[in-house]
Design a protein that fits this description.
- With 507 residues, the chain is an alpha+beta fold.
- It has 2 domains: 227 residues, 2-Layer Sandwich (Nucleotidyltransferase, domain 5), CATH 3.30.420.40; 228 residues, 2-Layer Sandwich (Nucleotidyltransferase, domain 5), CATH 3.30.420.40.
- The protein contains 16 helices and 23 strands.
- The strands form 7 sheets. A 7-stranded mixed β-sheet has the order 17-18-16-15-21-22-23, with helices on both faces. Strands 3-2-1-5-14-13 form a 6-stranded mixed β-sheet, with helices on both faces. The protein has a two-stranded antiparallel sheet with strand order 4-7.
- Helix 8 packs across helix 13 and helix 11 packs across helix 12.
- It is globular, with a radius of gyration of 22 Å.
Length: 507
Amino acid sequence: MTMPSILVIDVGTTGLRAALVNGAGQIIDSQYCKNPPSTPFSGLVEFDAMHMFTAAREAALTILQRNPNSAIGIGITNQRASTVVWNRITGEPLGPALGWQDLRTVMECITARSEHGLMFAPNQTATKAAWMLKNYGAQLQEEIQRGDICIGTIDTWLTWKFTAGEAFVTDHTNAGVTGLFSIDTLNWSEKICGILNIPLAALPTIVASAQVVGHATELDNLPIAALVGDQQASLVGQGCITPGSTKITFGTGGMLDLYTGTTAPTASSRSTSGTFPIVAFSLNEKDEKGVTTTKVHWGVEAIMLSAGTNIEWLIEDMGLINNAQESADLAATVASSDGVMYVPALFGLGTPHWDYGARGALLGITRGTTRAHVVRAVLEGIAHRGADLFEAAAHDAAQFASPASSPIRIDGGMSKNPVFVQALANSTSRTIEVSPVTEATTLGAAFLAGTALGLWPSLTAATSTWNPKNQVESALDEPTTEATRAQWAQAVRASQGWIPDLSALDF
Protein backbone atom coordinates (compact mmCIF):
# COMPACT_ATOMS: atom_id res chain seq x y z
CA MET A 1 0.00 0.00 0.00
CA THR A 2 1.29 3.48 -0.91
CA MET A 3 2.07 5.68 2.10
CA PRO A 4 0.19 9.01 1.97
CA SER A 5 2.53 11.86 1.11
CA ILE A 6 2.62 15.62 0.71
CA LEU A 7 3.59 17.29 -2.56
CA VAL A 8 5.78 20.30 -1.83
CA ILE A 9 6.49 23.12 -4.26
CA ASP A 10 9.65 24.85 -3.05
CA VAL A 11 10.56 28.04 -4.91
CA GLY A 12 14.05 29.44 -4.36
CA THR A 13 15.87 32.42 -5.78
CA THR A 14 17.54 30.65 -8.72
CA GLY A 15 15.45 27.51 -9.09
CA LEU A 16 12.50 25.54 -7.82
CA ARG A 17 11.70 21.97 -6.95
CA ALA A 18 8.69 19.76 -6.49
CA ALA A 19 9.14 16.99 -3.95
CA LEU A 20 7.16 14.26 -2.27
CA VAL A 21 7.48 13.85 1.52
CA ASN A 22 6.00 10.78 3.20
CA GLY A 23 4.59 10.32 6.70
CA ALA A 24 8.01 9.32 8.02
CA GLY A 25 9.35 12.77 7.10
CA GLN A 26 11.40 11.44 4.19
CA ILE A 27 11.77 13.03 0.76
CA ILE A 28 11.01 10.12 -1.55
CA ASP A 29 11.13 11.91 -4.90
CA SER A 30 12.02 15.35 -6.21
CA GLN A 31 12.23 17.26 -9.47
CA TYR A 32 14.41 20.38 -9.78
CA CYS A 33 14.13 23.12 -12.37
CA LYS A 34 16.45 26.10 -12.83
CA ASN A 35 14.61 29.41 -12.78
CA PRO A 36 17.21 32.17 -12.39
CA PRO A 37 16.18 35.81 -12.25
CA SER A 38 17.46 38.35 -14.75
CA THR A 39 19.57 41.39 -13.90
CA PRO A 40 19.05 43.92 -16.72
CA PHE A 41 21.16 46.49 -14.83
CA SER A 42 23.23 46.46 -11.67
CA GLY A 43 20.95 46.33 -8.64
CA LEU A 44 17.88 45.24 -10.62
CA VAL A 45 16.59 41.69 -10.14
CA GLU A 46 13.53 40.63 -12.14
CA PHE A 47 11.79 37.40 -13.09
CA ASP A 48 9.00 36.19 -15.34
CA ALA A 49 6.14 35.22 -13.01
CA MET A 50 4.29 33.25 -15.72
CA HIS A 51 7.42 31.24 -16.48
CA MET A 52 7.83 30.54 -12.76
CA PHE A 53 4.28 29.23 -12.53
CA THR A 54 4.68 27.08 -15.64
CA ALA A 55 7.93 25.61 -14.31
CA ALA A 56 6.35 24.88 -10.92
CA ARG A 57 3.35 23.23 -12.56
CA GLU A 58 5.52 21.04 -14.81
CA ALA A 59 7.76 19.97 -11.94
CA ALA A 60 4.73 19.11 -9.80
CA LEU A 61 3.05 17.19 -12.62
CA THR A 62 6.25 15.19 -13.15
CA ILE A 63 6.25 14.12 -9.51
CA LEU A 64 2.56 13.22 -9.58
CA GLN A 65 2.99 11.19 -12.76
CA ARG A 66 5.91 9.26 -11.27
CA ASN A 67 4.01 8.66 -8.03
CA PRO A 68 0.32 8.22 -8.87
CA ASN A 69 -2.18 8.35 -6.00
CA SER A 70 0.50 9.13 -3.42
CA ALA A 71 -0.08 12.81 -2.65
CA ILE A 72 -2.96 13.88 -0.42
CA GLY A 73 -2.20 17.59 -0.50
CA ILE A 74 0.20 20.39 -1.35
CA GLY A 75 2.47 22.67 0.63
CA ILE A 76 4.08 25.75 -0.93
CA THR A 77 7.24 27.39 0.41
CA ASN A 78 9.01 30.26 -1.27
CA GLN A 79 11.60 33.00 -1.32
CA ARG A 80 10.07 35.81 0.66
CA ALA A 81 9.23 39.38 -0.40
CA SER A 82 9.63 38.84 -4.15
CA THR A 83 6.64 40.64 -5.61
CA VAL A 84 4.17 40.07 -8.46
CA VAL A 85 1.46 42.48 -9.63
CA TRP A 86 -1.17 41.11 -11.98
CA ASN A 87 -4.61 41.69 -13.46
CA ARG A 88 -7.32 39.69 -11.73
CA ILE A 89 -9.42 39.50 -14.92
CA THR A 90 -6.76 38.45 -17.43
CA GLY A 91 -4.54 36.55 -15.01
CA GLU A 92 -1.49 38.21 -16.57
CA PRO A 93 1.28 40.09 -14.73
CA LEU A 94 1.43 43.82 -15.44
CA GLY A 95 5.20 43.64 -15.91
CA PRO A 96 8.30 41.81 -14.69
CA ALA A 97 8.11 40.59 -11.10
CA LEU A 98 10.69 42.02 -8.74
CA GLY A 99 12.98 39.63 -6.86
CA TRP A 100 13.70 40.15 -3.19
CA GLN A 101 17.29 41.17 -4.06
CA ASP A 102 16.12 44.05 -6.27
CA LEU A 103 17.47 47.40 -5.05
CA ARG A 104 15.68 49.89 -7.31
CA THR A 105 13.65 51.33 -4.43
CA VAL A 106 16.56 52.40 -2.21
CA MET A 107 15.63 56.07 -2.61
CA GLU A 108 11.99 55.32 -1.84
CA CYS A 109 13.12 53.67 1.41
CA ILE A 110 15.19 56.71 2.34
CA THR A 111 12.31 59.05 1.49
CA ALA A 112 9.81 57.03 3.52
CA ARG A 113 12.04 57.30 6.57
CA SER A 114 12.77 61.00 6.24
CA GLU A 115 9.19 62.09 5.42
CA HIS A 116 7.08 59.55 7.32
CA GLY A 117 9.37 57.89 9.85
CA LEU A 118 8.79 54.49 8.24
CA MET A 119 11.66 52.00 8.19
CA PHE A 120 11.69 49.91 5.00
CA ALA A 121 14.48 47.85 3.53
CA PRO A 122 14.63 47.67 -0.28
CA ASN A 123 14.38 43.88 -0.12
CA GLN A 124 10.89 44.11 1.40
CA THR A 125 7.69 43.97 -0.62
CA ALA A 126 6.33 47.36 0.44
CA THR A 127 8.30 49.75 -1.75
CA LYS A 128 8.47 47.21 -4.58
CA ALA A 129 4.68 47.03 -4.73
CA ALA A 130 4.36 50.82 -4.64
CA TRP A 131 6.95 51.16 -7.41
CA MET A 132 5.19 48.57 -9.58
CA LEU A 133 1.78 50.19 -9.19
CA LYS A 134 3.26 53.55 -10.11
CA ASN A 135 5.23 52.31 -13.11
CA TYR A 136 3.18 49.36 -14.39
CA GLY A 137 -0.24 50.64 -13.44
CA ALA A 138 0.01 54.27 -14.50
CA GLN A 139 -2.73 53.74 -17.10
CA LEU A 140 -4.77 51.38 -14.93
CA GLN A 141 -6.11 53.63 -12.17
CA GLU A 142 -9.74 52.57 -12.77
CA GLU A 143 -8.77 48.89 -12.62
CA ILE A 144 -6.79 49.51 -9.44
CA GLN A 145 -9.68 51.30 -7.76
CA ARG A 146 -12.12 48.62 -8.95
CA GLY A 147 -10.04 45.92 -7.30
CA ASP A 148 -8.97 44.23 -10.54
CA ILE A 149 -5.27 44.52 -9.70
CA CYS A 150 -3.64 41.99 -7.38
CA ILE A 151 -0.41 42.32 -5.45
CA GLY A 152 1.22 39.25 -4.00
CA THR A 153 4.34 37.42 -2.97
CA ILE A 154 5.29 34.12 -4.62
CA ASP A 155 2.99 32.01 -2.42
CA THR A 156 0.02 34.22 -3.30
CA TRP A 157 0.77 34.20 -7.02
CA LEU A 158 1.23 30.42 -7.28
CA THR A 159 -1.83 29.67 -5.16
CA TRP A 160 -3.96 32.05 -7.23
CA LYS A 161 -2.78 30.42 -10.47
CA PHE A 162 -3.09 26.83 -9.22
CA THR A 163 -6.64 27.44 -7.97
CA ALA A 164 -7.63 29.22 -11.20
CA GLY A 165 -8.13 32.50 -9.37
CA GLU A 166 -10.31 31.14 -6.58
CA ALA A 167 -7.86 31.66 -3.70
CA PHE A 168 -6.22 35.06 -3.20
CA VAL A 169 -4.34 34.49 0.04
CA THR A 170 -1.01 34.65 1.84
CA ASP A 171 0.05 33.42 5.25
CA HIS A 172 1.41 35.28 8.28
CA THR A 173 5.03 34.26 7.65
CA ASN A 174 5.06 35.83 4.22
CA ALA A 175 2.89 38.81 5.12
CA GLY A 176 5.05 39.54 8.14
CA VAL A 177 8.17 40.37 6.13
CA THR A 178 6.48 42.58 3.50
CA GLY A 179 6.75 45.81 5.48
CA LEU A 180 2.96 46.19 5.12
CA PHE A 181 1.98 44.02 8.10
CA SER A 182 0.87 45.21 11.55
CA ILE A 183 1.87 43.01 14.48
CA ASP A 184 -0.88 44.66 16.52
CA THR A 185 -3.76 43.67 14.24
CA LEU A 186 -2.09 40.70 12.51
CA ASN A 187 -3.35 42.22 9.29
CA TRP A 188 -2.33 44.79 6.69
CA SER A 189 -1.48 48.21 8.07
CA GLU A 190 -3.99 50.73 6.75
CA LYS A 191 -1.61 53.55 7.68
CA ILE A 192 1.38 52.20 5.77
CA CYS A 193 -0.70 51.18 2.76
CA GLY A 194 -2.24 54.63 2.69
CA ILE A 195 1.15 56.37 2.74
CA LEU A 196 2.42 54.15 -0.11
CA ASN A 197 -0.85 54.40 -2.11
CA ILE A 198 -1.36 50.65 -2.02
CA PRO A 199 -5.10 49.82 -2.01
CA LEU A 200 -6.06 47.24 0.59
CA ALA A 201 -8.32 45.57 -1.97
CA ALA A 202 -5.23 44.68 -4.01
CA LEU A 203 -3.71 42.69 -1.13
CA PRO A 204 -4.53 39.06 -0.34
CA THR A 205 -6.38 37.70 2.67
CA ILE A 206 -3.99 36.57 5.41
CA VAL A 207 -4.57 32.99 6.54
CA ALA A 208 -2.87 30.43 8.77
CA SER A 209 0.32 28.76 7.55
CA ALA A 210 -1.36 25.35 7.89
CA GLN A 211 -4.83 25.57 6.39
CA VAL A 212 -6.63 24.32 3.29
CA VAL A 213 -7.05 27.42 1.12
CA GLY A 214 -8.20 25.90 -2.17
CA HIS A 215 -7.63 23.09 -4.64
CA ALA A 216 -5.07 22.91 -7.43
CA THR A 217 -7.21 22.30 -10.49
CA GLU A 218 -4.35 21.07 -12.69
CA LEU A 219 -2.67 18.97 -9.99
CA ASP A 220 -5.27 16.24 -9.42
CA ASN A 221 -7.43 18.83 -7.62
CA LEU A 222 -5.26 18.34 -4.53
CA PRO A 223 -5.91 20.68 -1.58
CA ILE A 224 -3.30 23.40 -1.02
CA ALA A 225 -2.84 23.05 2.74
CA ALA A 226 0.24 25.10 3.65
CA LEU A 227 1.86 28.39 2.69
CA VAL A 228 5.10 29.36 4.41
CA GLY A 229 8.15 31.53 3.80
CA ASP A 230 11.36 29.65 3.13
CA GLN A 231 13.25 30.51 6.32
CA GLN A 232 10.29 29.69 8.54
CA ALA A 233 9.79 26.46 6.60
CA SER A 234 13.40 25.57 7.35
CA LEU A 235 12.79 26.35 11.04
CA VAL A 236 9.80 24.01 11.15
CA GLY A 237 11.52 21.46 8.93
CA GLN A 238 14.33 21.16 11.46
CA GLY A 239 11.92 20.69 14.34
CA CYS A 240 12.60 24.07 15.97
CA ILE A 241 9.17 24.60 17.51
CA THR A 242 10.04 24.79 21.21
CA PRO A 243 11.11 28.14 22.72
CA GLY A 244 14.83 28.74 22.30
CA SER A 245 15.34 26.26 19.48
CA THR A 246 17.45 27.65 16.65
CA LYS A 247 18.35 26.90 13.06
CA ILE A 248 20.77 28.55 10.65
CA THR A 249 20.56 28.10 6.89
CA PHE A 250 23.94 28.57 5.23
CA GLY A 251 23.25 29.14 1.55
CA THR A 252 24.43 32.05 -0.58
CA GLY A 253 23.81 34.12 2.53
CA GLY A 254 23.04 32.97 6.05
CA MET A 255 19.74 33.18 7.92
CA LEU A 256 19.28 32.36 11.59
CA ASP A 257 15.80 31.89 13.01
CA LEU A 258 15.10 31.31 16.70
CA TYR A 259 11.64 30.25 17.86
CA THR A 260 10.31 32.27 20.81
CA GLY A 261 6.72 31.04 21.28
CA THR A 262 3.25 32.61 21.15
CA THR A 263 4.01 35.89 22.93
CA ALA A 264 3.97 38.67 20.37
CA PRO A 265 6.90 41.10 20.15
CA THR A 266 6.36 44.68 21.26
CA ALA A 267 7.82 46.21 18.10
CA SER A 268 8.23 45.18 14.48
CA SER A 269 11.41 47.14 13.87
CA ARG A 270 15.00 45.93 13.95
CA SER A 271 16.40 45.62 17.47
CA THR A 272 19.56 47.25 18.78
CA SER A 273 21.16 43.80 18.47
CA GLY A 274 20.34 43.78 14.76
CA THR A 275 17.65 41.09 14.70
CA PHE A 276 14.06 41.27 13.46
CA PRO A 277 10.87 39.80 14.92
CA ILE A 278 9.22 37.32 12.57
CA VAL A 279 6.13 35.15 12.47
CA ALA A 280 7.52 31.62 12.75
CA PHE A 281 4.24 30.00 11.66
CA SER A 282 0.53 30.18 12.44
CA LEU A 283 -1.95 27.41 13.16
CA ASN A 284 -5.72 27.13 13.44
CA GLU A 285 -6.66 25.72 16.84
CA LYS A 286 -9.99 24.83 18.46
CA ASP A 287 -10.79 25.79 22.04
CA GLU A 288 -12.87 23.72 24.47
CA LYS A 289 -16.05 25.17 22.94
CA GLY A 290 -15.04 24.08 19.45
CA VAL A 291 -14.37 27.63 18.28
CA THR A 292 -11.47 27.85 15.81
CA THR A 293 -8.96 30.65 16.19
CA THR A 294 -5.63 31.31 14.53
CA LYS A 295 -2.67 31.26 16.88
CA VAL A 296 0.46 33.02 15.70
CA HIS A 297 3.88 31.72 16.76
CA TRP A 298 6.84 34.08 16.78
CA GLY A 299 10.60 34.14 16.43
CA VAL A 300 13.59 36.37 15.85
CA GLU A 301 15.71 36.43 12.71
CA ALA A 302 19.35 37.38 12.17
CA ILE A 303 20.96 37.80 8.75
CA MET A 304 24.39 37.19 7.24
CA LEU A 305 24.72 38.93 3.87
CA SER A 306 27.28 36.51 2.44
CA ALA A 307 28.03 32.89 3.39
CA GLY A 308 28.40 30.51 0.46
CA THR A 309 29.17 33.51 -1.74
CA ASN A 310 32.61 33.50 -0.14
CA ILE A 311 33.22 29.95 -1.37
CA GLU A 312 32.16 31.04 -4.86
CA TRP A 313 34.71 33.87 -4.55
CA LEU A 314 37.46 31.37 -3.72
CA ILE A 315 36.51 29.29 -6.77
CA GLU A 316 35.54 31.78 -9.46
CA ASP A 317 37.55 34.89 -8.64
CA MET A 318 40.57 33.82 -6.62
CA GLY A 319 41.06 30.44 -8.27
CA LEU A 320 42.27 28.92 -4.99
CA ILE A 321 39.99 25.88 -5.27
CA ASN A 322 38.05 24.20 -8.06
CA ASN A 323 34.81 23.37 -6.26
CA ALA A 324 33.06 23.61 -2.91
CA GLN A 325 34.12 20.12 -1.81
CA GLU A 326 37.75 21.11 -2.25
CA SER A 327 37.34 23.85 0.35
CA ALA A 328 36.84 21.18 3.01
CA ASP A 329 39.56 18.89 1.65
CA LEU A 330 42.17 21.64 1.43
CA ALA A 331 41.29 23.26 4.77
CA ALA A 332 41.60 19.87 6.47
CA THR A 333 45.26 19.63 5.43
CA VAL A 334 46.22 22.23 8.07
CA ALA A 335 45.41 22.03 11.77
CA SER A 336 44.52 25.72 12.00
CA SER A 337 44.50 28.91 9.96
CA ASP A 338 47.81 29.80 11.67
CA GLY A 339 46.50 33.13 12.92
CA VAL A 340 44.88 34.21 9.64
CA MET A 341 41.38 35.66 9.98
CA TYR A 342 38.89 36.43 7.24
CA VAL A 343 35.83 38.65 7.64
CA PRO A 344 33.14 37.63 5.09
CA ALA A 345 31.80 41.10 4.34
CA LEU A 346 31.72 41.03 0.54
CA PHE A 347 28.43 42.95 0.55
CA GLY A 348 28.75 44.50 3.98
CA LEU A 349 27.80 43.15 7.40
CA GLY A 350 24.29 42.24 8.51
CA THR A 351 23.35 41.29 12.08
CA PRO A 352 24.42 42.68 14.51
CA HIS A 353 26.30 45.52 12.79
CA TRP A 354 24.23 46.42 9.70
CA ASP A 355 27.12 48.16 8.02
CA TYR A 356 26.61 48.16 4.24
CA GLY A 357 29.98 49.86 3.79
CA ALA A 358 32.00 47.15 5.55
CA ARG A 359 34.13 45.05 3.22
CA GLY A 360 35.86 41.70 3.38
CA ALA A 361 39.15 41.59 5.25
CA LEU A 362 41.99 39.06 5.32
CA LEU A 363 44.23 39.67 8.32
CA GLY A 364 47.19 38.01 10.03
CA ILE A 365 48.98 36.96 6.83
CA THR A 366 52.67 36.02 7.13
CA ARG A 367 55.30 34.72 4.73
CA GLY A 368 54.30 31.25 5.84
CA THR A 369 50.61 31.67 4.99
CA THR A 370 49.50 29.07 2.43
CA ARG A 371 46.50 28.56 0.21
CA ALA A 372 45.17 26.04 2.74
CA HIS A 373 45.41 28.57 5.57
CA VAL A 374 43.44 31.14 3.57
CA VAL A 375 40.71 28.67 2.64
CA ARG A 376 40.43 27.50 6.24
CA ALA A 377 40.28 31.11 7.42
CA VAL A 378 37.35 31.74 5.05
CA LEU A 379 35.42 28.77 6.47
CA GLU A 380 36.20 29.85 10.03
CA GLY A 381 35.20 33.45 9.25
CA ILE A 382 31.76 32.34 8.05
CA ALA A 383 31.46 30.26 11.21
CA HIS A 384 32.32 33.28 13.36
CA ARG A 385 29.60 35.24 11.60
CA GLY A 386 27.23 32.40 12.46
CA ALA A 387 28.22 32.82 16.09
CA ASP A 388 27.57 36.58 15.81
CA LEU A 389 24.04 35.87 14.62
CA PHE A 390 23.41 33.38 17.41
CA GLU A 391 24.66 35.72 20.13
CA ALA A 392 22.46 38.56 18.85
CA ALA A 393 19.36 36.36 18.58
CA ALA A 394 19.94 34.75 21.97
CA HIS A 395 20.19 38.22 23.53
CA ASP A 396 16.93 39.38 21.95
CA ALA A 397 15.09 36.14 22.77
CA ALA A 398 16.22 36.04 26.41
CA GLN A 399 12.87 37.38 27.64
CA PHE A 400 11.05 34.49 25.96
CA ALA A 401 13.41 31.54 26.33
CA SER A 402 17.02 30.64 26.97
CA PRO A 403 18.67 28.91 24.00
CA ALA A 404 21.86 28.42 26.03
CA SER A 405 21.69 24.65 26.24
CA SER A 406 19.88 23.99 22.96
CA PRO A 407 21.75 22.66 19.92
CA ILE A 408 21.93 24.77 16.78
CA ARG A 409 20.49 22.99 13.77
CA ILE A 410 21.81 23.84 10.33
CA ASP A 411 20.94 23.22 6.70
CA GLY A 412 21.96 24.74 3.36
CA GLY A 413 24.85 23.90 1.06
CA MET A 414 27.58 24.67 3.61
CA SER A 415 26.12 22.18 6.09
CA LYS A 416 27.81 19.48 3.99
CA ASN A 417 31.29 20.88 4.79
CA PRO A 418 32.71 19.09 7.88
CA VAL A 419 35.49 21.62 8.49
CA PHE A 420 32.98 24.44 8.50
CA VAL A 421 30.57 22.58 10.80
CA GLN A 422 33.37 21.95 13.30
CA ALA A 423 34.38 25.62 13.12
CA LEU A 424 30.77 26.62 13.84
CA ALA A 425 30.67 24.33 16.88
CA ASN A 426 33.94 25.86 18.07
CA SER A 427 32.87 29.49 17.63
CA THR A 428 29.41 29.05 19.20
CA SER A 429 30.40 26.52 21.91
CA ARG A 430 27.18 24.70 21.00
CA THR A 431 26.32 21.28 19.69
CA ILE A 432 25.67 21.55 15.96
CA GLU A 433 23.06 19.22 14.48
CA VAL A 434 23.20 18.84 10.70
CA SER A 435 19.94 18.45 8.80
CA PRO A 436 19.42 15.09 7.04
CA VAL A 437 18.49 17.01 3.89
CA THR A 438 20.30 20.05 2.51
CA GLU A 439 17.09 22.04 2.05
CA ALA A 440 14.92 21.62 5.15
CA THR A 441 12.39 24.07 3.65
CA THR A 442 10.75 21.17 1.85
CA LEU A 443 10.25 19.24 5.09
CA GLY A 444 8.77 22.28 6.86
CA ALA A 445 6.15 22.89 4.18
CA ALA A 446 5.27 19.19 4.25
CA PHE A 447 4.96 19.12 8.05
CA LEU A 448 2.58 22.09 8.01
CA ALA A 449 0.44 20.76 5.15
CA GLY A 450 0.40 17.26 6.62
CA THR A 451 -0.72 18.64 9.98
CA ALA A 452 -3.59 20.53 8.32
CA LEU A 453 -4.67 17.37 6.48
CA GLY A 454 -4.35 14.95 9.39
CA LEU A 455 -1.32 13.05 8.10
CA TRP A 456 0.13 13.92 11.51
CA PRO A 457 -2.09 14.66 14.55
CA SER A 458 -0.09 17.76 15.42
CA LEU A 459 2.89 19.79 14.30
CA THR A 460 4.80 18.36 17.26
CA ALA A 461 4.15 14.85 15.97
CA ALA A 462 5.21 15.89 12.46
CA THR A 463 8.49 17.46 13.56
CA SER A 464 9.31 14.49 15.80
CA THR A 465 10.26 12.66 12.61
CA TRP A 466 13.26 15.00 12.20
CA ASN A 467 16.52 13.13 12.73
CA PRO A 468 19.91 14.88 12.36
CA LYS A 469 22.46 13.54 9.95
CA ASN A 470 25.20 14.02 12.54
CA GLN A 471 26.08 16.00 15.66
CA VAL A 472 29.29 17.95 16.21
CA GLU A 473 30.63 19.24 19.54
CA SER A 474 33.11 22.07 20.13
CA ALA A 475 36.75 20.95 20.17
CA LEU A 476 37.95 24.06 22.03
CA ASP A 477 38.06 24.83 25.74
CA GLU A 478 36.37 27.97 27.04
CA PRO A 479 39.49 30.19 27.37
CA THR A 480 40.58 29.40 23.81
CA THR A 481 37.10 30.15 22.46
CA GLU A 482 36.95 33.46 24.32
CA ALA A 483 40.38 34.50 23.04
CA THR A 484 39.49 33.58 19.47
CA ARG A 485 36.20 35.45 19.63
CA ALA A 486 37.95 38.54 21.01
CA GLN A 487 40.40 38.47 18.12
CA TRP A 488 37.48 38.01 15.75
CA ALA A 489 35.82 41.16 17.12
CA GLN A 490 39.03 43.04 16.41
CA ALA A 491 39.05 41.76 12.83
CA VAL A 492 35.42 42.86 12.34
CA ARG A 493 36.25 46.37 13.51
CA ALA A 494 38.99 46.54 10.89
CA SER A 495 36.47 45.72 8.15
CA GLN A 496 33.84 48.27 9.15
CA GLY A 497 33.22 51.66 7.60
CA TRP A 498 35.37 50.91 4.54
CA ILE A 499 32.98 52.77 2.22
CA PRO A 500 31.67 55.60 4.44
CA ASP A 501 28.77 56.61 2.18
CA LEU A 502 27.38 53.07 2.26
CA SER A 503 28.06 52.72 5.97
CA ALA A 504 25.87 55.78 6.50
CA LEU A 505 22.86 54.01 4.97
CA ASP A 506 20.41 52.51 7.45
CA PHE A 507 17.31 50.55 6.53
